[in-house]
Amino acid sequence: MYKENYGNIPNRDKINFILNDGYEKSKDLNLLIRSFRIGRFLGNLSKDLSLDKEILESLSLYKLDELYNDSIINIYQKLREEAYFFNAKVLLIFDESDFMKEYKENHILNDYEKVILDVDRFFDYKGDIIDNDYKRNFSLLLSKDIETYLPKVNKNKFPYNK
After folding, report:
1. How many CA atoms, within 13 angstroms, populate the side-chain half-sphere of residue 14?
2. Is the sign of the CA dihedral 85, 86, 88, 92 positive or negative?
């Protein structure tokens, strides 16, 4: 879908496809779960942060290099081939190369980039929230307890629907 000033943003189905495809290559279930949880968490925050829900959910693609077990530059190029220019740019702010360090020093982060940088700092590898200063500071922006924004886990019992 197209968003003014952000270009094409993958919808939830495309995000799920990209993440599942990355999982097929890496078989890293923790990273897949983390990406899904962060995407849904960010989408749930949209009203409190006054930011677009679809753009926030698409930020779950920010660790594709790890999920695909590939370089940031290769994943950046793949996202650009799909015309997801904003998501490709967000991926680059996690690159630690010398070039990107210089770029980040001269780049003013937008609200979405600030949010994903903060959220990345208080989610662990398995997608659980860590209690640290980043979490406490981020919580000040929210109207409810931060845990309430996490996606609900569906627990099914056998036999189903009873």
Report:
1. 16
2. positive
Separation between Cα atoms, residue 117 and residue 55, nearest integer Å: 15
- Residue 28 and residue 127 in contact, taking contact as beta carbons nearer than 8 Å: no
String of b and e for 127-150 (b: at least 16 CB within 10 Å)? bebeeeebbeebeeeeeeebeebb
Model pTM score = 0.86
Structure confidence by residue, pLDDT tens digits, 22-66: 899 888 888 899 999 999 999 999 999 999 999 999 999 999 999
- Note the pLDDT of residue 162: 54
Q: What is d(CA 67, CA 135) in angstroms, rounded to the nearest whole number?
A: 24
Terminal Cα-to-Cα distance of the chain (whole angstroms) = 39
Q: Which of 15, 103, 1, 113 is nearest to 64 (CA)?
A: 15
- The lowest-confidence range among 4-18, 88-102, 146-160 is 146-160
Residue 5 tokens, joined: 């000033």
Taking 70 as the threshold, does the pLDDT of residue 157 lie above it? no
